[in-house]
Amino acid sequence: MTLKGIRPVRKPSFMGDVVYESLKEAIVNGDISPGQRLIENQLSMQMDVSRIPIREAIKKLEKDGLVEKADKRGFIVKHISKGDVEETLGIRAQLESYAAYLATERMTDDIFQILQDNIKAYRQALESGDVEKLMEHNTQFHEVIYKAARSEKLYSLINNFRDLIFRYRKPLLNNPEYARVSLNDHEEMLSAMREKDKDRVETLVKKHIMRGKDIIMNELESGRLI
């Protein structure tokens, strides 16, 4: 069976890192589902590399919490528990709301325009039902805010928690009701930033993230997500 999202890669000296990034992207994007077994021989043939970088990449993914040892036969993509979601998004709500607070304090006209253009592009993707573009614009909106905070330490901390939850962007934004609510949230955040209301922006970002957490938790409990 050929795994979706996996393709041959180039062979630089840091092949383990290239394989790692390729596998991680496939897992985070949902191309490889939770519970899917990662078989070294299969991946080696499909990616056209030796088993050594495959093994190195899988060990890094295990440290990231994206895969876990299933038995003596190898590794599987890890299922995310309700506890993982609760803890990770709780931490993200604190970190990202503070990043938005700082970004509001340090906002420039150029950054504001980028966010405004992003919202316009997000709205167009929503109207056309393009979920891939919705994910792209949603990620970009928050990425601009993280960087606008101008705190390398904070940016690094936020990045530590992103991959785990990125796996659920697609099912969330595939829900038109949530996607539209997310758009409204972004518009409110931008409005508060325009007014330099740092406390309101911080509150809005926390509510935005926690709303997503509640939806993911409900989907997990219903069995619609794994």
Describe the structure.
This protein is mainly alpha-helical. It has 11 helices and 3 strands; from the N terminus they run H-E-H-H-E-E-H-H-H-H-H-H-H-H. The protein has helices spanning 15-28, 40-47, 51-64, 82-105, 109-128, 131-148, 152-160, 162-166, 169-173, 176-194, 198-222; strands spanning 37-38, 67-71, 74-77. Strands 1-3-2 form a 3-stranded antiparallel beta sheet. Strand 2 and strand 3 form a beta hairpin. Helix 1 (15-28) packs across helix 3 (51-64) and helix 4 (82-105) packs antiparallel against helix 11 (198-222). The radius of gyration is 19 Å and the shape is elongated. The protein starts with 14 loop residues before the first helix and ends with a helix.
CATH topology of the largest domain: Four Helix Bundle (Hemerythrin (Met), subunit A)
Helix content: over 70%
Name of the CATH homologous superfamily of the largest domain:
GntR ligand-binding domain-like
What count of helical segments does DSSP give?
11
Q: State the separation between the terminal residues, measured CA to CA.
A: 21 Å
Beta-strand fraction estimate: under 5%
Residue runs with pLDDT of under 50 for 5 or more positions: none
Residue-averaged pLDDT? 90
The tally of domains stands at: 2
Q: Sheet bearing the most strands, described?
A: 3 strands, antiparallel
Give the CATH class of the largest domain.
Mainly Alpha
Helix/strand-derived category reads mainly alpha
CATH architecture of the largest domain: Up-down Bundle
The strand line-up of the biggest sheet is: 1-3-2
